Amino acid sequence: MISALTGELRRVDEDRIHLQVGPLMCEMLVAAADLPSLRDAIGSEMTFHTVMYIEGDASGGNLEPRLIGFLQPQDKAFFQLFITVKGIGPRKALKALAAPAGEIAQAIESRDARFLVGLPQIGKRMAEQIIAELAGKAARFATALDGKGKPVQSRGRRSPAEEDAIATLMALGERRVDAEQLLDRVRQSSPDLKTTDAFVHEMLRMRNDRG
Fold first, then answer.
1. Inter-axis angle of helices 196-210 and 160-171, to 10 degrees?
2. What structural domains does the chain harbor?
3. Integer angstrom CA distances of residue 153 from 60, 69, 80, 183
């Protein structure tokens, strides 16, 4: 099983990317929300957290393996949760993920069907089904919102070190929204920190002080 691939981003198409990994050129499907930033990153070395699935009709003998890549491990984990909903396959899920996974998870937890209907491939009945099946399960992925319903994190995509620090705290049982708040506090108190280890150390210290 391939869990992650690191290589040079060579090309970005409508729904997939091409990653040069040594002598191999790997094609990966990606979430719609990631496409704009990926188009700006052509030529960069990047790591994608991957999922493999088999596409096609077994009775027709035309099965093909497909690789899906995510920029952050929590996005991969949310995708794996999202496709457990009846009627949402991998392709449909990738098109529906046109907003950041954290915002979609927040909409699920707040039972905001209107937000979900605004996503590609999601109608009213499907939005209600997503909420029915996933509400209570998506909290650890949810992004904190301000009083106007906007993401608290509005300064653009977090750095890989920051996302890894959040993922580490989530692996230790912290909800994403709480891990993000801890990270924001650390950034305010120690703006010079750059590495994952440094962020995690300070986040854990603040969590212990909070307790």
1. 40
2. 4-141 (1.10.150.20), 160-210 (1.10.8)
3. 47, 23, 24, 11
Helices (H), the chain: 35-39, 73-82, 90-96, 101-109, 113-117, 124-134, 160-171, 176-189, 196-210
CA neighbours within 13 Å on the CB side: how many for 111? 4
The token duo for 207 is 């969590």
Model pTM above 0.85: no
Tokens of 31: 């979430």
Question: How far is Cα 116 from Cα 107, in angstroms, rounded to an integer?
Answer: 7
Q: What is the pLDDT of residues 38-71, one digit of tens each?
A: 998 999 999 999 999 988 776 766 788 999 999 9
- For residues 178 and 185, the answer to whether their CB atoms sit within 8 Å is no
Q: What is the pLDDT of residues 167-206, one digit of tens each?
A: 888 888 887 777 888 888 898 888 889 899 999 999 999 8
Cα 56 from chain centre: 25
